[in-house]
Amino acid sequence: MKKSKSKKQSNTQQEATNVEEFSFNITKIAVSQICKSVGFKRSQILALETLTLVATKYLEALAKSSVSFSNAANRTQSNLLDLTNALHDMSQVGFRGASTLYDNNCLLKSSVLEDLSAFVSSTAEIPFAKPIERAKEREMEKVKASTGNLQRGAHIPEWLPSFPDVVSNEKCNKRVNGEELWENSSSVLGCQSDGFEEKRNPGKLAKERARVKFRINGGGKRVQLNGYSGNNLFSQTKDEEPEAEYKKPIKSKENQNRVYKRRKL
Amino acid sequence: MNHNQQSGDAKNDDDSALSDFLASLMDYTPAIPDELVEHYLAKSGFQCPDVRLIRLVAVATQKFVAEVASDALQHCKARQAAVIKDKREKQQKDKHLILTMDDLSKSLLEYGVNVQHQDYFADDPSTGRDPASREE
């Protein structure tokens, strides 16, 4: 039941199987060192683990409330003021000046910060018991030095096209702050001008198409290539046969000339 | 005008005190390693490029744990002071400062955390009541 707080390695320690256990074990070492500095010689295992759990929950609760304070102010990164507000929220026993918290609008004069500074100056440092491996600096991913790629980060793959240029939208119905629906935004409208014809008939080919013809070996045989059939590419037909798909009558000589010109290319 | 100047001076003093405190944070190494704190902060969504704020969180947590532990120590010493029978036990008292669940639960209760063990569990709500008052 009782575990010695000395710095000798305990035989009851088990290796961590996942990330949570690993961080929990490290936190347990730190908490036991703090308890030793306070004056305890020994501890029950369950008591130590409970205190460690409470410490981790406290840390996470501090972080979460600080994050929600910064998010409420339209920010993603927390600053000292968010942290001070979070510390105020987390204090259960109260602190000096808690009743007049927002009277003078100066959060940095908070007594919580003063208490922390007094704690730092009065308490001796507690070096961590086990050696800590510093994380190796990750090798910076080399981004190709093209003009488009310098702007966007490594999280966007190379094979994606670059972002469209932002075209200024000069419509008269604009909101005060420049807000507009996403569909009407300039980035989306800029895309539409390129493939506009395709969007008219999505998935359908044009009805009137020129017939593609070519000759094989320059001989008498003339092979007609159907405009849109992929399977039966080669079919021998005579020009005189009427074909229902094509509205325009086919003139054979002109087609031959057309074919000849194409083969030259 | 004077009031504004005074408040401005007061703010400058506070800012300088605060910046001194933050500078002293970099000299002070908290008991909880920076990487561990960063892991828990990242788990909760806390984003901050400033290392001093991470140290501040570590120091705040260390202060909290130290306060809880010192309260538990007070409870432990108070219990031992009440149990002294012989003079020999006074010397043994210093060696037996053990963090028990009992003391810890009492000190955590003051901080709003309930980790009290139930004394016993019963299978019936009327267990332990006076038999005359039991409703059957």
UniProtKB/TrEMBL annotation, chain A:
GO terms for cellular component: transcription factor TFIID complex. InterPro entries: BTP, Histone-fold, TAF8. GO terms for molecular function: protein heterodimerization activity. Gene3D superfamilies: Histone, subunit A. It is found in: Nucleus. Keywords: Nucleus, Transcription, Transcription regulation. It comes from the Eukaryota. It holds the Pfam family Bromo_TP. Residues 20-95 form the Bromodomain associated domain. The keyword Nucleus applies. Residues 244-256 have a biased composition (Basic and acidic residues). Residues 226-236 have a biased composition (Polar residues). This is Transcription initiation factor TFIID subunit 8.
UniProtKB/TrEMBL annotation, chain B:
Keywords: Nucleus, Transcription, Transcription regulation. It comes from the Eukaryota. GO terms for biological process: transcription initiation at RNA polymerase II promoter. GO terms for cellular component: SAGA complex; transcription factor TFIID complex. One of its GO terms (molecular function) is promoter-specific chromatin binding. It is found in: Nucleus. The keyword Transcription regulation applies. It holds the Pfam family TAF10. Transmembrane segments: none annotated. Belongs to the TAF10 family. TAFs are components of the transcription factor IID (TFIID) complex that is essential for mediating regulation of RNA polymerase transcription. This is Transcription initiation factor TFIID subunit 10. It comes from Durio zibethinus.
